[in-house]
Amino acid sequence: MRGKLLIIGFGPGSFQHITERAREALQESDVIIGYNTYVDLIRGLLTDQEIVRTGMTEEVSRAIEAVRQAELGKKVAVISSGDAGVYGMAGLVYEVLVQKGWREADGVEVEVIPGISAINSCASLLGAPVMHDACTISLSDHLTPWELIARRIEAAGMGDFIVALYNPRSGKRTRQIVEAQQILLNYRSADTPVGLVKSAYRDRQSVVLTTLGEMLEHDIGMLTTVIIGNTSTFVYDGKMITPRGYQRKYTLDKAEQPIKANERLKEEHEPWALHGGLSERQSSVLKQEASGSNSLELAMQAVTLLAERGVVNTKAVDAPVSNPYDTMPAILEIAVSPGVGNKKLTAKQLTALMAAAGDEGEIEYTPHHYVLLRVLTKEPDQVVSQLEAAGLLVQPIGDVVQVKACDFCNGEKTQSIAEAEEIAARFAGLAVPKELKIGFAGCAMACYGSAHEDIAVIYRRGKFDLFLGGKTIGRNAHAAQPVAEGIPADELVDTVGRVLAEYKEKGHPDERFHKFFKRIGAVAGYHHNEHVPAVTVDTVCGD
Fold first, then answer.
1. Mean pLDDT in the chain?
2. CA distance 192 to 384
3. Measured in whole angstroms, how far is the alpha carbon of residue 50 from the centre of its chain?
4. Stretch 463-491: mean pLDDT, rounded?
5. Distance separating alpha carbons of residues 117 and 127, to the nearest angstrom
6. In this structure, what are the phi and psi dihedrals at residue 287, rounded to the nearest 5 degrees?
7. Of 216, 384, 397, 503, whose CA is between 20 and 30 Å from 158?
8. Can you say whether residue 481 is alpha, beta or left, with left for phi > 0 and alpha for psi between -120 and 50 degrees?
9. Can you tell me whether residue 467 is helix, strand or coil?
10. For 455-534, where are the E strands, in sequence order?
11. Any idea which of 90-94, 147-151, 163-167, 304-308 has the lowest mean pLDDT?
12. CB–CB of 77/31 below 8 Å?
């Protein structure tokens, strides 16, 4: 009978975190081989299996015994806490098998069953410290020379890796954690956040947040995992957090708000908005409710405001929690153009754009009637103000609405410029499921490819035609479908608003508008057609 080795990682130790396959493997085994503490942790899952238990540092003998028992035709479970392939028994068992000339085809069967490693279980208790490049380093020199371990710590410090230290200190081995701290202090601040997690998800669990400079002031032993943050890791509200990147990218929510802040939530100003809006009656009710607030609440609000401004120092209110992202370097990404329909940049505007980019920024040409500016800055408002002072139009990018207008025949056809600018003012920057472009043409010639955009508005004979669902790129690129003709100017903006509102409400995340239009079948009363007849233009200039 062919034996089998089941190399099991059972996670941090709590039954809730042991995988179903690990439980099954324990049940089907004839023999359980493991370190004394590990056997005790899973004893509640065992029945009548034979148990072979050894002390610490006897990993090799356990691996040899496991292979011997399997060669006798038994199913042998070799247990490790965490993951058996991360400082566990999997590697040692394979080493023993290799030395014996084992071949998978005719040797004992081997199955490695993964578990939750300490870096993952401990990170979950600390917050989110392992969100960027990380490494695990065992400080145990029982099987690895300390000189090699020290070089790896040095490399991790140089590379600014998040570091998880396993087996940091034992009763006899105490200097390694001290030397590890000294090495890492050469590369990162003493204030670098450090998490010390002992016996994660076990009865005697302990979680301590400290710093690289003060970590040795706390109890650290063999059951402790030490997670040391990188140079961007911070602590917020008791949680250790590492950002996904060293720089955060952001754009503008909206360059301008055409409606005053205290009026913006009224539905008569934003009939397309999906927050539901506040009617005059609802606003009145809220004012009445606010006026009914008791004096204590109003007083606390006043004290809180004064405390936030530093006017008073009091323990009556909680101190405001600072946002660590406010001090992180940030890349501002914005779309910059000379205007909705203007395609000409002046020397003054080019100078302002170059000054905003500086030596380290980027200016990228795009086919969307704007240039993309990327600049590292902590003062985005100042950058935007300087560009706007030069007469440039600044808009957000990303999954927002953008308006692409023609040049209105170099500004000679002015009849519809006002509507194009109003659409840009009302909708440019509106968050939608996927980036959406509104093409606007000042005549039926539809220059600049407007009819192929997600939404197209084309001025013709004093009124406007509406097209929906275009696709500008790909082998199956196609024009948008004509859905309405002769829309009066005073109805145009609300019509576009209704289309955008329905897309914002019902569109799936990352679903492009043309796919949404096809899936849903009708948007704002306009129906999708699989086969669209060609649009006939009966005049040379399109008017």
1. 86
2. 34
3. 48
4. 94
5. 16
6. -65, -40
7. 216
8. beta
9. strand
10. 455-460, 463-468, 481-487, 522-523, 526-527
11. 304-308
12. yes
Q: Are 89 and 62 in contact (CB under 8 A)?
A: yes
Percent of the chain with pLDDT over 90: 70
Give CA torsion, residues 494, 496, 497, 499, to 10 deg: 130
Distance CA 140, CA 34 (A): 19
Tell me which residue has tokens 């590890």: 180
Contact 15, 44 (CB under 8 A): yes
Is it the case that residue 406 has pLDDT exceeding 70?
Answer: yes
Cα-based angle 454, 468, 441 (whole degrees, multiple of 5): 75
Q: What is the predicted pLDDT for the residue at 318?
A: 55
Residue for token pair 């009914």: 292
Tokens of 248: 């955060």
| CA gap 438, 452 in Å, rounded | 10
Distance in angstroms (rounded) separating the CA atoms of residues 124 and 44? 25
By residue count, the chain amounts to 543
Tell me if the pTM is above 0.85.
no
Measured between alpha carbons, how far is 360 from 345 in angstroms, rounded to an integer?
Answer: 22
What residues contact 278, with CB distance under 8 A and at least 6 apart? 265, 266, 267, 286
| Position with higher pLDDT, 282 vs 245 | 245
What would the pLDDT profile of 250-305 be if each residue is shown by its tens digit?
666 543 333 333 333 344 444 444 444 444 444 444 344 444 456 666 666 666 66
What is the identity of the amino acid at 328? Answer: M
Our measurement of the distance from residue 234's CA atom to the centroid of its chain's CA atoms, rounded to an integer in Å, reads 17
Q: How far is CA 239 from CA 174, 210, 339, in A?
A: 28, 11, 45
Q: 388 and 394 in contact (C-beta within 8 Å)?
A: yes
**Tokens at residue 491, please?**
């109805």
Residue 271 three-state SS: coil
* Cα 88 from Cα 153, distance rounded (Å): 20
Q: What is the pLDDT of residues 73-131, one digit of tens each?
A: 999 999 999 999 999 999 999 999 999 999 999 999 999 999 999 999 999 999 999 99
Encoded amino acid at 539, one letter: T
- How far is the C-alpha of 398 from the C-alpha of 250, rounded, in Å? 9
CA–CA separation, 131 vs 245, rounded Å?
9
Rg of the chain over CA atoms, in angstroms?
A: 33
The three-state (H, E, C) secondary structure of 3-67, written as one string: CEEEEEECECCCHHHCCHHHHHHHHHCCEEEEEHHHHHHHHHHCCCCEEEEECCCCHHHHHHHHH
Q: Is 217 exposed, middle or buried (0-12, 13-18, 19+ CB in 10 A)?
A: exposed
Residue type, 443: C
